[in-house]
Design goal:
The chain has helices at 23-30, 46-57, 62-82, 99-108, 121-134, 175-188, 205-211, 218-234, 295-304; strands at residues 12-13, 36-37, 86-90, 113-118, 139-140, 143-144, 161-165, 194-200, 243-250, 255-262, 266-270, 275-279, 284-291, 307-314, 320-327. It has 335 residues and is α/β, with parallel strands linked by helices. Strands 1, 3, 4, 5, 6, 7, 8, 14 and 15 form a nine-stranded mixed β-sheet that branches. Helix 3 (62-82) packs parallel to helix 4. The relative contact order is 0.17. The structure holds S-adenosyl-L-homocysteine and N,N-dimethyl-L-histidine.
Length: 335
């Protein structure tokens, strides 16, 4: 592989095209409510992103390894089908798995620009520098922002765009949110653009349970880090030892649900909001859902969002799916 001196990686902010709640508003509606919940995006400050990376290396957390192996096997096929001039990746994190696509690009002499798009600048800068060192031809142009704030200002180019959403992060949306997000992506796409979507599969609940309850306690630390985010960003005084990590698989909903459960009564002061909240022993904050799909529910979701599946790559274990899809006619409303 060629190497060259890394040029400076600069993250450009994406101007939102719709208004979304601020952290203060999400806390006001999500925590000061009977059923307490917060959006999972708040996990990803610098420390949360680093903890997610550690989760990916834990033996119980199979999704990253499985998707990585699938990408390695299918990279040549994907690049030769799409021939991308630009790759935009939503929620790119450390951009590790995409290396298989870049290796295939090098072999096939296809040289796309890479546009990672994430809320965490720190991971995009670190990973962008490494990628630029490893692939001399690669132009890395990160976008910084919240992908739920509208995609209308993304730099979709006239060539062939490959849009990617990996890791199973689509499962962190509800069904309605997931279809709406995929439709937004579809609305950006031209006829020759394609979407590569990674999604986690329904499987033995014990395997799922273990993945979100690793013995080393990294997922618990990742979950509890959210309290540090609230303490720092809103001047709150959550006492971490009063809260515990609780994650389980809900087979009725086909989803992992992750909670922070209060184990001792605590009054939490949010000094920036000039408000306090009483937590009773047993009160819980839902911090994440992680939906799991069958082959059928995954393809149905894509069809509802106006995509036609081109290739469905799956591990023989059926642990995880990667789907390459292109825009199709949108189904009639209500279909
Ligand atoms: N795609 C990577 C990382 C998955 S972790 C992988 O497969 O390993 C989820 C990533 O999405 C994190 O990097 C997080 O910072 C980012 N993310 C979560 N919510 C986001 C949002 N609303 N807007 C932009 N990025 C978001
Ligand atoms: C990013 N996302 C797909 C991860 C998941 O598995 O839902 C986040 C995560 N939460 C706990 N462990 C990993």
């Amino acid at each position: 592989m060629d190497t060259h001196v890394a040029s400076e990686i600069i993250c450009r902010p994406v101007r939102p095209t719709k208004s979304i709640p601020s952290l203060t508003e999400d806390v006001a509606t999500g925590l000061f409510a009977a059923r307490k919940q917060l959006p999972a995006k708040y996990f990803y400050d610098d420390r949360g992103s680093a903890l997610f990376e550690r989760i990916c290396a834990e033996p119980e957390y199979y999704p990253t390894r499985t998707e990585d192996a699938l990408l390695e096997r299918s990279a040549r096929d994907i690049i030769s089908r799409v021939g991308p001039s630009q790759i935009i990746e939503f929620g790119s994190g450390m951009s590790r798995k995409i290396r298989h696509l870049f290796d295939a690009c090098s072999e096939l002499e296809c040289y796309p620009t890479y546009v990672p798009f994430d809320v965490c600048d720190d991971v995009m800068i670190k990973s962008g520098e490494k990628l630029a060192q490893n692939y001399a031809w690669l132009d890395v142009a990160p976008l910084s922002g919240d992908y739920t704030a509208g995609l209308g200002n993304l730099p979709i180019l006239g060539g062939r765009n490959l849009l990617m959403f990996l890791g199973g992060t689509i499962g962190n949306f509800t069904e309605v949110q997931g279809i709406a997000f995929l439709r937004e992506i579809r609305d950006l796409m031209g006829d020759t653009d394609q979407l590569l979507l990674g999604a986690d599969r329904v499987k033995n609940p014990e395997v799922l349970h273990a993945a979100y309850n690793d013995v080393a306690g990294i997922t618990a630390e990742f979950n509890l880090n959210l309290l540090d985010v609230l303490n720092r960003e809103l001047g709150a005084d959550f006492h971490r030892p009063n809260f515990g990590h609780y994650a389980f698989y809900n087979p009725d909903e086909n989803q992992i649900e992750m909670y922070l459960v209060c184990m001792r009564d605590q009054e939490v002061r949010f000094s920036d909001l000039e408000r306090s909240l009483i937590f009773k022993e047993g009160d819980a904050i839902r911090t994440e859902i992680s939906r799991k799909f069958t082959r059928e529910t995954l393809e149905n979701m894509l069809n509802c969002a106006g995509f036609e599946v081109q290739s469905h790559y799956e591990a023989s274990s059926h642990l995880f799916s990667l789907v390459l899809a292109r825009p199709s006619e949108l189904p009639p409303v209500g279909a």
